[in-house]
Amino acid sequence: LSVVVLFTALLFCKIFHWLCDARVEHIEQSQETSRFAHARVVLLMVVLFSIDCALAYISAHVVSKNGASVQLLFGFEYTLLCIMIVTTFVRYTLSLVDTHFVQGRWYNKSLYELYLKLIMDVVKLVVYFVFFSIVFTYYGIPIHLLRQLYLSFKNVNERLRHFLLFRRVTANLNERFANATEEELEATDKVCIICREEMTAGVGAGAPKRLMPCGHIFHFYCLRNWFERQLKCPTCRADIVPSGAATRQNA
Fold this sequence. Notes:
two-stranded antiparallel ribbon, 2 strands, elongated, disordered C terminus
């Protein structure tokens, strides 16, 4: 009976975490959100984080006192929920700063989100590995955890690979892609398809850039933010590779 109650409590906690994450995503996409709505979502995150920490601590205390048991699984699950709610809170904070302090002109926001995803994926991998090691020590090889451990490692590897490629592509972004001229902009509708705002020819770091070899034109900061998500042209989906990689491919 106690195990059923614990599983039910865990399920309810997960549901509220999913709802909180969905609510934060809704706030990120909303133009206006009342202070009451902000207060409610912050209070919910604080309550969920407190519950996660308390239940994870209780599970760890029971395991340390009575030895390995089903409480080990619950401690692991509540630790993952702690990571999830911390990620949600940091996303909410970044969105709040972008919306209310810089009026949507925080060009480095997506870069911080990229750092956040990479760090949290690494933390999750560490938690999975620790849990796998503990279960292996007491019960032998946990076959049911091998897939989750592999997927977590694969996710970190892909995220890290994308991050390194992104750093290489954007290290000389302003020099690698030429500024779009007025004549080139006249040949288009002058609208950046990423932000849907008009583009004007100019010089400097913020000038619209022309991708090569496809020739599509975008705002500089929009293009950099797009590369933080995927290294493809937003229009034709052509791959954008670092200069060194492109040189090796041509060779």
